[in-house]
Design goal:
The protein has five helices and three strands. It is elongated, with a radius of gyration of 14 Å. It has a three-stranded antiparallel beta sheet. The protein is an alpha+beta fold.
């Protein structure tokens, strides 16, 4: 299993919807886990941009431990690096904070 618990998997699976998600990410410094927030649904913003263009709020931050079960998230990178890179590719289509 790529995720430490079902709640973390569900959080990642809901990426792109309004709310918050915990997803694997990478940048020039390496791989990490991020928590992201968005006040709009990605799909709805594409379908009805006039309703979502006035104010959009997005934020992110890195985390070290799963907020649901307490697992050390770096260990997931050690156990499942290729699977998590595939997950990152899937999330890039949501243009998360310009990281695509």
């Amino acid at each position: 299993m790529t995720f430490c618990c079902e709640k973390l998997k569900n959080s990642s699976d809901n990426c792109g919807l309004r709310g918050s998600w915990i997803v694997p990410m990478e940048n020039s410094g390496g791989e990490y886990w991020g928590i992201l927030y968005r006040n709009y649904d990605y799909e709805n913003a594409i379908k009805r941009p006039d309703e979502y263009s006035i104010l959009t709020i997005e934020a992110s931050g890195g985390i070290k431990f799963c907020p649901y079960c307490g697992a050390e998230l770096a260990l997931l990178w050690e156990k499942h690096p290729e699977e998590l890179k595939d997950v990152i590719k899937r999330y890039q289509s949501y243009d998360l904070l310009g990281r695509s």
